[in-house]
Amino acid sequence: MELLTACAKSFLVGGLLCAAGQLLIDRTRLTPARILTAYVVTGVLLGAAGVYEPFAEWAGAGAAVPLTGFGSTLARGVREAVAESGVLGAFTGGLTASAGGITAAVVFGFLAAAVFKPREK
Description:
It is a single chain. This protein is mainly alpha-helical. The chain has one domain (about 1-115). About 85% of the residues lie in helices and about 0% in strands. It has 7 helices and no strands. The longest helix has 26 residues, at about 1-25. It is globular and about 45 Å long. The N and C termini lie far apart (about 45 Å).
């Protein structure tokens, strides 16, 4: 039963984050790129403030998968790298912490482009 509750919570939180993004696309003049950037920046700010970690523990994958989770990962990586390496960590920590996600995005994007015929609209 605990697994079912965790899955439902993740689904609802992730769905609410995505629905908020869709509402911003539908109801404002913001472009999707600006909304995505706002999600990442929000995740960075909430992660830097220490608010996102408890939220992500409660929400599970629903908070970890959207772009806010990526932003939080960047903030956590920078914070840890600065503690280890000083100022240089501010430049390397975010990429080190999120390298797996960035690599997956590049690989799956390449595979999608290889399987399907990309074209401009």
